[in-house]
Design a protein that fits this description.
This protein folds into three domains: 2-74 and 108-176, Lysozyme; 206-256, Membrane-bound Lytic Murein Transglycosylase D, Chain A; 270-312, LysM domain (Membrane-bound Lytic Murein Transglycosylase D, Chain A, Roll). The protein is elongated and about 60 Å long. By secondary structure, the protein is of the alpha+beta class. The relative contact order is 0.10. The strands form four sheets. A three-stranded antiparallel β-sheet has the order 5-6-7. Strands 1-2 form a two-stranded antiparallel sheet. The protein has a two-stranded antiparallel ribbon with strand order 3-4. Helices cover 41% and strands 11% of the residues.
């Protein structure tokens, strides 16, 4: 009896601490959810894994995409090498210098996560569960050994409930619905290219920040090419992204498909300038026009920003 009481007390403390943590990182978590929920829904539609579970695991394993490991590897689910023949990265986890899978894009990590669960026998019982029963899935993942953390299931459940991720779950028919994702989510055609066992989209995944649609550039992309893909003139694309005709598109850059807003998202009142940042990079991060940042902060148009300077964004 004492053990049960102690366990319940530990779980209560865990929930309280997780809630406090989530509130302190609330905007970064909301941004992650806004950016990747359509990918999670795609995993449920095509593979039968609850979208809420996919998002919760992505949030937890990648620190809402903000951990250094996630940034360097695009690995949002903490999947280790095992029988992996692709690119690798080494990171301290349960042991020092463990081998983890490295991906060229985050979308590859989401696809491989589904393949990983579906091709390993120890996870097979999960697919007999109701695809909207996130609690059963969370406990099932822990039981199957996805993570060594004894509180892993409770952390997933807490994230799902704090951020209402269950609203993205698609119902029992999701796993048998093989229709393609809405054209507003995935660009133009649904052509695919094989990367080992992982399938990914050749064209660009459309996501949003501050309510404005954008894509992330891939190797070989240009402003003209993306403009052609979305049937927008190159001049307009460049205008949306506030770059002149001489600027070349770099791999991994955000390319907005509509005009950025005059203010940053709610709860993003200010931003402290970090090493390597510019007004342009900050404007792209928050989906806000450079001119608006100048005006709000009364910065002369002939000047830039200083390291550590705190900028008003709303």
């Amino acid at each position: 009896m004492k053990f049960k009481k102690r366990t319940r007390f530990t779980i209560i403390l865990l929930f309280i601490s997780l809630l406090a943590f989530s509130q302190s990182r609330k905007q970064s978590y909301l941004d992650y959810i806004d950016q990747y929920h359509q990918l999670a829904e795609k995993q449920q539609r095509e593979h039968g894994i609850p979208a809420s579970i996919v998002l919760a695991q992505g949030l937890l394993e990648s620190g809402a995409g903000m951990s250094q490991f996630a940034k360097e590897s695009n690995n949002h689910f903490g999947i280790k090498c095992n029988d992996w023949t692709g690119d690798k990265i080494y990171h301290d986890d349960d042991q020092k210098g463990e081998c983890f899978r490295k991906y060229s894009q985050v979308i590859d990590s989401y696809e491989d996560h589904a393949v990983f669960l579906k091709t390993r026998p120890r996870y097979s019982f999960l697919f007999d569960l109701n695809p909207t029963d996130y609690e059963a899935w969370a406990h099932g993942l822990k039981k199957a050994g996805y993570a060594t953390d004894p509180t892993y299931a409770f952390k997933l459940i807490s994230l799902i409930e704090v951020y209402d991720l269950h609203r993205f779950d698609l119902g029992e028919s999701a796993a048998t619905n093989n229709s393609t994702v809405d054209n507003n989510t995935i660009s133009a055609s649904d052509k695919r290219a094989s990367i080992g066992k992982v399938k990914t989209f050749v064209n660009h995944l459309v996501v949003k920040v501050n309510g404005v649609k954008f894509v992330t550039s891939l190797p070989g992309d240009s402003y003209a090419g993306i403009a052609d893909e979305f049937r927008i003139t190159e001049d307009r694309i460049r205008n949306y992204n506030e770059v002149n005709s001489t600027v070349e598109l770099k791999n991994g850059s955000r390319v907005f498909l509509a005009a950025k807003k005059k203010k940053a998202p709610k709860n993003c009142e200010t931003h402290a300038v970090q090493v390597g940042e510019s007004l342009h990079s900050i404007s792209q991060d928050y989906g806000i026009r450079i001119k608006s940042i100048y005006k709000m902060n009364k910065i002369p148009f002939s000047e830039g920003v200083q390291l550590g300077q705190v900028l008003k964004l709303r």
